[in-house]
Amino acid sequence: MRAHSIPTRRLLASTVPVALLLGLGTSPAHADPLIGSHFNSYGLPGGIDTPSAEVLPDATLGATLSYSDLARRNTMVFQALPRLTVALRYSRVESTREARGYIWDRSFDLRYQFLDEDPQGWRPAVAVGLQDFMGTGIYSAEYLVATKTLTPRLRVSAGLGWGRLASTGGIGSLGDRPAPDEGEGGKPNIDQWFRGEMAPFVSASWQATDKLTLTAEYSGDDYACETGDAENCRRPIWLDDKDALKNQLNLGFTYQLGEHYQLGGYALGGKQFGVQFSVAMNARQAPYPSGLEKAPAPVRPRPARQADPDGWSGAWSADPTAQPAIQKALGDALAKEGQVLESMALDANRAEVRIRNNRYIQQAEAIGRTARLMSRALPPSVETLVITSSEDGLPTSSVVLRRSDVERLENTEAGQIANAAQLRDADPRPGNLVMTPGLFPRFSWGLKPYLSTSLFDPDDPLRYEIGAELSGEYELTPGLVLAGSVRQRVLGTTRQEAPGGMTPEEYEALDSDYDENGVPRVRSDGRMYSGNKSPWVSSLTLAWYAKPTETVYSRLTVGLLERAYGGVSGEVLWWPANSPLAIGAEINRVRKRDFRDTFAFRDYETTTGHVSAYYEFGNGITAQLDVGKYLAGDKGATLTLSREFANGWRIGGWVTKTDMSTEDFGEGSFDKGVSISIPLGWGTGDPSLRRIGGDIRSLSRDGGSRLRVGGRLYDKVRDSHSGQLYQGWGRFWR
Amino acid sequence: MTRTKRILLGGLLLGALAACGNQSNNDSVFGKLAQAARQSVAQRNAEPAPAPDPSAMAAEALRVNPGPLILVGLESAGSTQVMAMTGENAGRRTYMTKNEQALILRNGMLAGTRGLGNDLSVAEMSGSAALVLAGRSGEARRVMRYWTGDGLERPLPLDCRVGPGPKAGVMVERCQGFGLTFENSYLVQGGRATVSRQWIGPALGYVTIQELRP
Question: What pLDDT, in 10s, does the model give residues A103-151?
Fold first, then answer.
């Protein structure tokens, strides 16, 4: 068993001064990225159509809707790192190839500010950016841009653009820019970056009042395709016939509404007009930063030795009634804190409790509260406190504290108790552990409304379904769980749909699980499961979680694993509590479920599985690499990068590349997407493990698709392993 | 049934079943959001409640509760409450309201808060405390630590100057740093601050604390 010293400095120290987070509005003296205050029509800081070198405050999540006669762009932007801005955009693009005349096109942007502004000197902030750098690329452009604050109210940006930003007014070129990708798209078009004509752009923004900003720019984008300039349009299918711009000057304004919203309008080339609306919120700014949960019971220091000689001697431990009484009292106190005391081992000078945290996003807060309650419940001779986190019956990590440290360090900064604590792998089977009576078998159920949405469908951008979900869970012993849920639709606009333009009846009659290229339809007929007006069992599983050794976890799940598949799923994960590296393997044998009949199956059956490596880089940044065979039998790998903040915000993105050919995969070429998860308690202040969010995946295709089985071990175990635990350690004394 | 009616009925049904069951994390997202909305509406509509008479409150509390008590007024909320001591560890006393919000005091000087939404995790002010409680003038460094929205505990270091106040027996501590200034006043009796007005933090502002029973 290893017990690392705690890298408190790395985990608790931060470069962001508290003043910024408390909104005190002082300007930091040291070098910082140049922060932009308003969004351009691409949803990033900038002028109107042109970019600037500015970034957003770290961890800002924003969205911009920008609509004109020439373009409709919906952009989501995230400041992933202090200097790195990423954006995902859905834009309506004219397409003569489609019967409906347009498509909703996804595009991705990156911007990196590599040089800071020198506020005293002449040096501007400088950034490099890629706009719409993957896929069909109607907005594809690259730029190098500098921004300088001339007066506190006036900022000027100037840069050089390629691609769309150099549609007109070119001053030279770097080689030839190849024609846009005419294939299935979805790949980074590296061969085009910074190639072809380049053109200058300039913008100036003047903060007229505290709320109103006026912007003027010279842009190299003349909207050739949108205005029917066939000669200069890079792809004929994008041609449209809107009025041509008169010149390259754009003018705009932005009005700040409250803290989070911006309303703006702009005129393009003296001819076209647009409006836009933006919202931005920062993961670091919560309405109730410390949460509204009740105060914890304070530490009760032990009485002097002479005041309680029996308690100090440990003689009480010989009394067989002592532990049940203590366990009952501690269990009741923990229950009020939203925690379950699963089991307890007690002897004269050491106590171990196994707790299941059902309330606090930061596991450290649950542990800190448990430590204080232990100081109140245990006889004085108990000096070693071991608090083991149990994740649905899986003992993950143990925090070992000296009771005298808990007494001494209450009301000091959390870093001190972090240094005094040890984190260990939980012993899978300690000898003297006593289960709390009456906990198992445990039955829980819930009846709740559900809302499921499906966005960005070209024909119907927002589909939804509202209904009721009945879910139940029967835990026979810790780690052996029978769980299921039934959904009944009440109303909604989602309906059953078949792939390839067929009606559901035609598709059913076809009775094939393969498309015309012979690719198994593992996800592309997913809408055949939608619009069910009868009760529908979305999952029904028996799962067994276990911990065979101190550092290895296992899972075996059988049943209706997800909406579209049933079968068997097995997983193992090696992850020492103090290790940034975890390695896992999963194998599943599944069969495709019937579209309507809950307990029937279709013919498609497959074995799918992955070997996975997980690595925590610190500061909440995690990488995950899965290599294996996907549902459709294609082999490949998925890379996921995510950033999780101490407050529980989690934002990530993934790409999957398999050996399925681009033609077989279809539009998009390979699977990719982003996921967002925001703790509900961050917004409401009430402590809760509930989260809102979901995946935004570019397309639901058959290639690179994984089984969506619940209870994967990494997600189960991570909150109480060193990376996450220490990141949230600051709330130990909350 | 017309479409509108059906939707209405659906809405009602869903509202009626807004989460029931015995699951430990049974709070549905809808339920939570609805609750938050109700609270914020209630706050907005709330008539300024008739201020309860602090002296009547204090008398009642003294009669009911035999332990140490303080009377606390949070200026930003305009509220006054009696808080009772629930624990003491190395001279730091935790006082709580009935709904379990807490102040932590050391010799009457604020050392932390819990459950107020913008809590002060810990105030490191031994330098100031030594001067204030001894009735001496001088300079001291103070570090206030807060839980910030990003889930961390972060320090706010401040420079303070302690000196006698306008009234006899009152000590004043003026602190500044990061562009903010505040002023704490303490009436010191028997080695502790018995009546005081102290700054919690940028969001919560000042709190007045009066010792009812030591």
Answer: 878 888 999 999 999 988 899 999 999 999 886 678 999 999 999 999 9
* Facing A293 at nearest CB: one of B22, B33, B115: B115
Which two three-digit tokens encode residue A33?
A: 């990225």
C-alpha of A112 from chain center: 21
> Residue A194 and residue A182: Cα distance in Å, rounded?
19
Report how far residue A414's alpha carbon sits from residue B145's, in angstroms, rounded to the nearest whole number: 10
Phi/psi-derived region of residue A9, left when phi > 0, alpha when psi is between -120 and 50, beta in every other case: alpha
Choice between A614 and B36, residue whose per-residue pLDDT is larger: A614
Q: From B101, which residue of chain A is nearest by alpha-carbon distance?
A: A295
Does residue A181 carry a pLDDT above 90?
no
Q: Do the chains contact at A19 and B156, CB–CB below 8 Å?
A: yes
A694 at interface of B, judged by CB pairs closer than 8 A = no
B59 Cβ neighbours under 8 A, 6+ residues apart: none
Mean pLDDT throughout A654-666? 85
CA–CA distance, A311 with A317 (Å, rounded to integer): 9
Provide, as residue numbers in chain B, all residues whose Cβ is less than 8 Å from the Cβ of A407: 89-90
Rg (CA), chain B: 22
Report the residue from A14, A299, A727 with minimal CB separation from B87: A299
CA distances from A659 to A442, A549, A588, A604, A663 (A): 45, 36, 20, 20, 11
Q: Give the relative orientation of helices A363-377 and A322-336 as an angle to the nearest 10 degrees.
A: 140
Q: Which residues of chain B have pLDDT under 50?
A: 1-17, 26, 44, 46-48
Question: B205: closest CA among B127, B118, B124?
Answer: B118
Contact A293 B99 (CB under 8 A): no
pLDDT, tens digit (0-9, with 9 covering 90-100), for A419-430? 999 999 999 988
Residue type, A337: E
For residue B53, the model assigns a pLDDT of 81
For chains A and B, CB pairs below 8 A equal 223
| pLDDT at position B37 | 59
Give per-residue pLDDT as tens, B10-56: 444 444 445 677 775 545 555 555 665 566 555 545 444 555 688 88
- Whose tokens are 């691609």? That residue is A163
Q: What is the pLDDT of residues A628-653, one digit of tens each?
A: 999 999 999 999 999 999 999 999 99
pLDDT of residue A464: 87
Q: Identify which of A717, A419, A700 has the alpha carbon closest to the alpha carbon of residue A554.
A: A717
Residues 6+ apart with CB under 8 A from A528: A496, A497, A498, A504, A507, A595
Running DSSP on this structure, what letter comes out for residue A571? E
Token pair 């809102």: residue: A692
- pLDDT band, residue A527 (cuts 50/70/90): confident
Beta carbons of A640 and A652 less than 8 angstroms apart = yes
Chain B environment of A59 (Cβ under 8 Å): 150
CA dist A108 and A73 (Å) reads: 12
CA distance A63 to A56: 12
Percent of chain A with pLDDT over 70: 93
Three-state secondary structure call for residue A19: helix
Task: Decide if A589 contacts A595 (C-beta within 8 A).
Answer: no
Distance (Å, whole) CA A298 – CA A588: 48
Which range of A395-404, A510-519, A692-701 scores highest in mean pLDDT? It is A395-404
Subunit contact A446:B22, Cβ cutoff 8 A = yes
CA distance A492 to A471: 21
Residues of A in contact with B129 (CB under 8 A): none
Which is nearest to A653 in space by CA: A75, A78, A187?
A78
Q: Which of residues 229-288 of A touch B (CB under 8 A)?
A: 282-288
Q: List chain A residues with CB under 8 Å of B10.
A: 466, 490-491
